[in-house]
Amino acid sequence: MLSCNEPAAPLTGGGEERMTEISIAPDGRLYVFGASVGVLEALGAAGLGDESLERRLACLRDLACRTAAAGEQAAASEGEAGGALRNRSTEE
Amino acid sequence: MTPPARDPYSEVRKLASPFCAQFGASRQATGSRLMSQALLTQTRQLEARQHYARCQLCEHRCAANRLEGVRGPCKAGAEARVYRHRVESGEELELIPSHLFYLSGCDLRCAFCIAEENAFDPRRGVPLTAEFLRQAIPWGKAQQARNIQWVGGEPTIHIPAILEAMAGCSDLPPVVWKSDFYGTPEAFDLLDDVVDVYVADFKFGNDACAERIARVPNYTAVITRNLKRVAAAHDLIVRHLLLPEHFECCYRPVAEWMRDHLPSAKFSIRDGYLPKWRAGHFAELAGRLDPNDARRARLLAEELGLNVIM
Fold it and tell me: pTM of the entire structure?
């Protein structure tokens, strides 16, 4: 069974917003509507994707890495700036 | 000493991601977003709200007094409702992950609409307010969303409510506007410097198909005017959903128009047609798209030298 964990979108209720619709054509083509990262990863892991899905997942993973790295860098910069401010206020 | 206010999306904007790299260095500037936010002024909002009294937001130009409960072709009143919002990763790579806000109500009546009742009944969903957006946006950011995207139905008919909701948020991410592009120049004026990226659905290649399938007049004149206007000053993605048996009458004219007028604009060919809503009322739309049409479409786009991104 495919599974992925996603937090429910708040405020609109009903749970419909959590549903991904997948239609399967007689020739085996999948039509996916409302694709979260989790759903795409699950489809990829199940071998249900094609080259375009792999490219999409690669893009998303790359973005996630870059965002995490940029966030860490920003946190480190803020920490240094805070330290400089604290040092300066101590001196003053 | 107080540190300067920090744009929480600054790191996202600086990333040399497909979104930032392809949509121009100017969009990366923290200052441009903070300036855009400032433009959501009381003046802009009041100007937008005037359309509730005499609506001219779309080219139906019905002049309905939505404040008094008069309904035009879109059937929308003086509030906007969100029937769904979620972070989606099936959009163009330049945009994903994107936090989509789906608004009910639409100025078109496309028989094949995948949103079905949600698109055409503006009473569906919860009211769009600044409070709603203030709660929703952080949720989307926690799911790694890089932008918020207004979709429908059709967001143009809800510009006043959208501007008011966004004006009430202090940390707006980049704004994507996905539209049928049937809006008036006055509507696009209201969005100037507020929207970062436009995504236009160029649905039909001729007026006859637009009138027959979506019940909308003067389609090609309106959409091509708006496409040229937006492309001149904004980042734009043009989408076309391939319809069964509409290759020659719709897709080819769309592709050739793009070659003649917007050859470098990002072009997204969507081949995931499914016969939804009332597609069965039209014989040719009741079935699925021939896979050969998708291949032919991409081949033609290549021959025409279009900038196909999807």
Answer: 0.85
pLDDT at res. B38: 54
In this structure, the strands spanning B197-201 and B175-179 are parallel
Torsion sign over Cα B72, B78, B83, B87:
positive
Residues of chain B with pLDDT under 70: 1-40
CA distance A55 to chain B (A): 9
Q: What contacts B171, CB < 8 A, 6 or more positions away?
A: B7, B8, B9, B137
Q: What are the phi and psi torsion angles at B83 (to 5°)?
A: -95, -10
One-letter amino acid identity for B110? C
pLDDT recorded at residue B5: 45
| CA B248 centroid distance within chain | 25
CA B296 to chain centroid: 26
Whether the CB of B183 is below 8 Å from some CB of chain A: the reply is no
Per-residue pLDDT of B102-138, as tens digits, reads 999 999 999 999 888 888 999 999 999 999 999 999 9
Higher pLDDT, B236 or A7: B236
Q: What single-letter DSSP state applies at residue B138?
A: H
Distances (CA, A) of B2 to A75, B10, B11, B138: 17, 19, 21, 25
A70 contacts on B by Cβ (under 8 Å): 11-12, 14-15
The answer, for A11 touching chain B at a CB cutoff of 8 Å, is yes
Helix or strand holding residue B152 (H, E): none
For A11-64, the pLDDT digits (tens) are 655 455 567 888 888 888 888 888 888 889 999 899 888 888 888 998 898 888
The string of DSSP codes covering chain A is ------PPPSSS-SSGGGPPEEEE-TTS-EEEES--HHHHHHHHHTT---HHHHHHHHHHHHHHHHHHHHHHHHHHHHHHHHHHHHHHHHH-
Task: Read off the amino acid at residue B143.
Answer: Q
Q: Is any Cβ of chain B less than 8 angstroms from the Cβ of A29? A: yes
Q: What are phi and psi of B199, to 5 degrees?
A: -120, 115
Kindly determine whether residue A35 and residue B132, on different chains, have CB atoms separated by under 8 Å.
Answer: no
